[in-house]
Structure formats: C-alpha cells, structure tokens
TrEMBL record:
<dbReference type="Pfam" id="PF02926">
    <property type="entry name" value="THUMP"/>
</dbReference>
<keyword id="KW-0694">RNA-binding</keyword>
<dbReference type="GO" id="GO:0005737">
    <property type="term" value="C:cytoplasm"/>
</dbReference>
<keyword id="KW-0819">tRNA processing</keyword>
<dbReference type="GO" id="GO:0003723">
    <property type="term" value="F:RNA binding"/>
</dbReference>
<keyword id="KW-0808">Transferase</keyword>
<dbReference type="InterPro" id="IPR004114">
    <property type="entry name" value="THUMP_dom"/>
</dbReference>
<dbReference type="InterPro" id="IPR000241">
    <property type="entry name" value="RlmKL-like_Mtase"/>
</dbReference>
<feature type="domain" description="THUMP">
    <location>
        <begin position="91"/>
        <end position="201"/>
    </location>
</feature>
<keyword id="KW-0489">Methyltransferase</keyword>
<dbReference type="InterPro" id="IPR029063">
    <property type="entry name" value="SAM-dependent_MTases_sf"/>
</dbReference>
<dbReference type="GO" id="GO:0016423">
    <property type="term" value="F:tRNA (guanine) methyltransferase activity"/>
</dbReference>
<dbReference type="GO" id="GO:0043527">
    <property type="term" value="C:tRNA methyltransferase complex"/>
</dbReference>
<protein>
    <recommendedName>
        <fullName>THUMP domain-containing protein</fullName>
    </recommendedName>
</protein>
<dbReference type="Pfam" id="PF01170">
    <property type="entry name" value="UPF0020"/>
</dbReference>
<dbReference type="GO" id="GO:0030488">
    <property type="term" value="P:tRNA methylation"/>
</dbReference>
C-alpha cells in the first residue's frame, strides 16, 4: 500500500534546505501508535495513512529515525506530483512518468541517503544539470527501482513504470543496475494520478532486531513494541506474556521498559527453550528484570491482582 494522498510537508520544498521528509512503513492498524512515538520523540507533525506514516525532520538528525521502535522500513521522499492526467496509450503514460524525473529533489535525497548510510558521495551544487551533480563515485554506485502501484486502472504495469524510471536514472547518473546487490533503492509510488518518489534508507526491515532464535510464527519486534506501548506500562509494573512463544514481547519489554518486571512462559517445550535462549543472549550483556517459566497458561501460579498488564499474542494459542 502506498500513500493515497499528497504529503505536502515543508521538507519537500526546495527552500527548506535543512529539512527532509521521511516516510516509514508500519504494520497496518498500528499507525496511530507509531505516529505517537514519532511525534513524542521529534516533536513534529505526523501524517498517517494506511500502513505508513510521514513526517519532517532536520537532515542532521536523520539517523535518529533508526531509534524508533514501531516502524519497519524507512525512506526519504524527494518529491511528489499530483493530478497527473494519464493519457490513453501505454507509451504516452510511461513517457509522462519519465518526464517527472526532473521535478524531484535528487540532491537532497542523496544527501540524506549518504548521511544515513555513511557512503561518501560527492555532490556538487549543480542542480540544473543532474548528470553533473555527482562526481567520482558513479562507477561504484548501483541501484534498482521498485515500483508500487495502486488505484485506478492504468494502461501500464508496475514493472513498466519501474523500467522507464530506471532507464533515466541510469542515463542521468551513470549508476549500474543491480537488482540484488544494489547501493540505492529508488522507490516509485503511484496511487491513481498521484506519484511520489523516495530513496530507501535501510537495507532491511528494522523489525529484524534483538531476537537470535525464531519460530515459524515469531511476532515481529515492531508489533511487540506497539502492543507494549498500548499497555501504558509504568515503572514498577509487572508485565506478563503467558504464551510467549519465542519471547518477542518479553525481549522487547525488558529492553525498552527496564524499570518494569517482565514474566513470560509457555507450555510448549520448544517455545520455552527458544525464549530462554533469546533471554540468555541478552543476559550476557547485563542483568535483566525478567523470569521465564515452563507453565500452563490456564493455570498460572500467580496470586490475584499480582499482574499489572498482560501483553500477549493469542493468534495461534
């Protein structure tokens, strides 16, 4: 799913050289939780759409986006084009898409990308001739274009749009195409008659963290974090996941709410052992406020009113 309406953030305007606009993907249904986390951390307005949030941030602070716990993938937006009246033939439509290339702020996008990835890229001030904007590293850079398309019936398919955008990127910047071992991923998003482009700022989803041992249905840590935030955990609370599986909720809890005490357990031998392994991998770093049990969730060995919050995933239990 792509954003269905324009972002219209100040960071997309060329006169705001110190601001950039970030788009982050979120598990559908948890956009409000991610927006609240982002707004609290950066004190910025956050736009929510299905499966995504968008916000402005100072370019010098862009690496702090990776500290957000509720989001999965991150990109910097380099521009948007509204109300495109696509023509009748496939060839004309693809030419319209290619013609949008010069409307995007590639210089700002590449500046943000280089800061996030620590890739030393030399950018000139020349924005009139984009082919001269980058010097020195052209032969080292590779890219791919990923197109996501939703909305009205278009005369073209997503691979067609990605191909024409990739062609002009290659012609302009001289980067080589590599669909697997790429440096830069250009994200072309088309929703009806609205187009926006971003550059991916991460190689893989941010949900791949903290866990060392996984099961077939291990809950994403990003979802676990959102669930824990919804529980409004306070210092001194006892938080329990009675069917903890691989321990995703427990691990996310002890790392981000260290002033609470966390309990987890499972009746399944494999799940219990997997959680123990994930906890033990963290305990090598420090003493953690957690206990893991091999128990039956229908007969918890707990006194009444001894648990402040139960946070659990009951999908397959």
């Amino acid at each position: 799913m792509v954003a269905s309406e324009p972002f219209r953030f100040p960071g997309l305007l060329p006169e705001n050289a110190n601001l950039c606009t970030i788009e982050a993907t979120v598990t559908t249904g948890l956009e409000a939780v991610a927006a609240e986390e982002c707004s609290k951390k950066f004190e910025t307005n956050v736009m929510r759409t299905r499966g995504r949030i968008g916000f402005d941030i100072e370019i010098d602070k862009v690496k702090e986006v990776l500290e957000l716990k509720c989001i999965d993938n991150v990109s910097v937006l380099i521009g948007e084009v509204e109300n495109i009246k696509f023509k009748e033939t496939k060839e004309e439509c693809l030419q319209q898409i290619q013609d949008t290339f010069t409307l995007f702020d590639w210089r700002k996008g590449l500046l943000v990308w280089s800061k996030m990835t620590d890739f030393d890229i030399a950018l000139s001030e020349n924005v009139e001739d984009l082919s001269k904007m980058i010097s020195g590293e052209k032969e080292e850079l590779s890219f791919r274009v990923t197109c996501t398309r939703v909305g009205q019936k278009h005369k073209f398919q997503s691979p067609d749009a990605g191909k024409v955008m990739g062609a002009i990127v290659n012609d302009t910047f001289g980067w080589k195409v590599d669909l697997t071992a790429f440096n830069i991923e250009v994200l072309l998003n088309i929703c009806g008659n609205y187009i926006y482009i971003g550059l991916s700022l991460v190689k893989e989803s941010l949900h791949k963290r903290n866990l060392h041992y996984f099961g077939r249905a291990t809950l994403r840590p990003t979802i676990s974090h959102c669930m824990l935030r919804l529980a409004c955990i306070e210092s001194g609370d006892v938080v329990c996941d009675p069917v903890c599986g691989s321990g995703s909720i427990v691990v996310e809890g002890i790392l981000n709410w260290p002033n609470a005490f966390h309990l987890g357990g499972d009746i399944h031998d494999v799940a219990y052992n997997r959680t123990k392994q994930n906890i033990d991998a963290l305990k090598s770093q420090k003493c953690l406020p957690v206990n893991i049990f091999h128990w039956d969730a229908t007969r918890l060995p707990m006194l009444d009113n001894s648990i402040d919050a139960i946070v659990t995933d009951l999908v397959i239990n």
